[in-house]
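[agent] plan:
  1. take the single chain provided in the ticket
  2. run structure prediction with default settings
  3. attach structure tokens to the ticket
  4. add a short note for the reviewer (M.T.)
[agent] executing step 1
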Amino acid sequence: MEGSLIMDFSEKQVIVCYIDNNKALIYQSAIGSILQINFPPDVISDQELVNRGKFEQIIESFLEANKLEKGIIIFIYPPGITIEKDFPDELTGNKNEEIQKFIDMVPFEEVLSKIYKLNRKTKVVAINQEIYESMKNIFSNKKFLVLGVIPSTVLQETVEELSKNIDLAFIANKIYSLKQYSIVNEGELSNQNAKEKSGLKKQNIRGYVLIIIFVILLFILIILAVIKLFPRSSSKDLPVMQPPFSPTPTVPITNQPSISAAQPPISSPSGSSIKPQ
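[agent] step 2 finished; step 3 output follows
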């Protein structure tokens, strides 16, 4: 599946989106240029998405103005928009518990995190899922294939060419080999989309059930109202109908030998069941 997606987009442009608190840098491999989107202070503040509607409107307007068509995109997050912590291998105590405590303390309502094993230490990076999901949905709606999001600090510690400078052109050229460092990989993106659709389906089913229950209750209420407004006449008020008189016919009685009726055998049902169609 992944190979087919890559083949479908192989001839399309590659975009590297470097997003920070107050701006986003968009590198286009097709023309080798970098464009910049500025975010007002009331859009992203302290790594929180303050105004999601305005944020998405700014990006959508940017894509339309620059006529960016479908392609491949990956997001790069600098330390200004991530929360990170390094845990040395020689850490005393239970490292897993310390890592979980750190993740639990991240002050976002929805968190995406990943644990990296780097140079005798463990790096844990967490990001605000709401910002990432918003960006991903915008570009996905514009027919872009989203490969994920990579912390810039991880690239600097793993790729020598990026140790001193985050070169967006280099990242675009090595996008398929670098996507292994993504906090969310392509497979997980597909699973998230499936979960979102499943959640919407469950919500729709729940809505239909509630509507049916409401209609039934409304129908019962109408019946009770009709009965109360138009009560049935009491049986005492109804005229008593006397059957017509007819003489009892005289039937001759003859002596007949008594015949004992045979008691039918008692049997239980076969117990066979009908499978519902």
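[agent] step 4 note for reviewer: The chain has a mean pLDDT of 78.
[agent] ticket updated
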